[in-house]
Fold this protein.
Amino acid sequence: MNGNFSKIQKLFENFYSDAICFYLPVIIQYYPFKNSIVYCSQFFYMKITEHIEQAKDTLISFEVLPPLKGKTINSVYDHLDPLMEFKPSWINVTYHRSESMFKKQLDGTFEKVEVRKRPGTVGICAAIMNHYKIDAVPHIICGGFTTRETEDALIDLDFLGIDNVLVLRGDAAKNEASFEPEVGGHKLGIDLLRQVINMNHGIYLDDDIKNGGKTKFCAGVAGYPEKHFEAPNLEIDLNRLKEKADAGAEYIMTQMFFDNQKYIDFVKSCRDMGITIPIIPGLKPITNKKQLSVLPRIFHVDIPTDLSNAIFKAKTDAECEQIGTEWLIQQSKELKTFGVPVLHYYTLGKPRVIRDVAKAIF
Ligand SMILES: Cc1cc2nc3c(=O)[nH]c(=O)nc-3n(C[C@H](O)[C@H](O)[C@H](O)COP(=O)(O)OP(=O)(O)OC[C@H]3O[C@@H](n4cnc5c(N)ncnc54)[C@H](O)[C@@H]3O)c2cc1C
């Protein structure tokens, strides 16, 4: 039996992820030792909703940024390796749009250039799935893409067997005061979500495509326990979130928060208005004093007084990190008791802190 199992493992190692995705269902269906395959099959093709449905306890997942251009995929593995012992159910990969910059030319004039500091998510997600044999969830955004470019990216993801996506409008570009959609692109997260759901029904942008292949995307959307900063009030924001759930979103992933009551109240408001899909809390540690002003400015979240006072009083960076780590451990323990389906950690540059938190919880 072991020989058979290692044969299959070898098969996995030798295939690229698209090949794996193509052959795996066949192997599972026809391979005689189905029980030994179950272990492997759990690594692939599971939708976020299936992970949650099949979970016996609170799950853990992580979020990473694509590396800066010029760095290799090994920098992603170096970041994730210390976290893999906690058996994350999946890894999210954020999307970062290009920025307009003015570059000085030899003649002294400036030329406007589009600079993409981090590559897209398709390759990195395929690499993560192939390397760790776990699901990867690319973030897909409206900003910077025409609907046709989005369709092509979704087709690539589908071909690679990447069935989970987090659908977002995206942040404004660095040179924009507020979000500007691309010409021929989507304006709102729900428009992009509808495109994904249409493809799940075999509907592509080109009318000539009849009986198009149906993708299998499990689409998540963002939720804001403290309201999205552009929404006039929480009630309107929640109504818009309900529209996304009604349009086919299968789960919600929240913006970071530091006061669990905000998440608990948010979940209650969602349930009261008939949003029934899982609501995954997004969690981030505070590790330095600068974040006390940066996080509210960028993410429009409140820092509880007890936490901010403790960080202000800290004498060293190490002390700040210790306080932030303990806060996140406490937050995670409470949320686990509350019964959240998953603890999702934004690891951004802080895998060591997240490791300490995960060690205390899992
Ligand atoms: C978990 C998570 C992950 C994220 N990952 C990324 C990432 O990888 N890359 C990135 O660039 N950004 C990311 N973001 C940031 C996100 O793109 C921004 O917060 C963005 O400003 C809003 O995205 P959205 O999908 O919530 O937008 P939308 O759902 O489009 O909402 C944006 C605003 O429009 C309003 N609105 C919604 N529907 C309507 C309507 N029908 N009419 C009028 N107004 C409406 C909403 O109330 C809200 O104020 C992430 C955010 C979260 C919470």
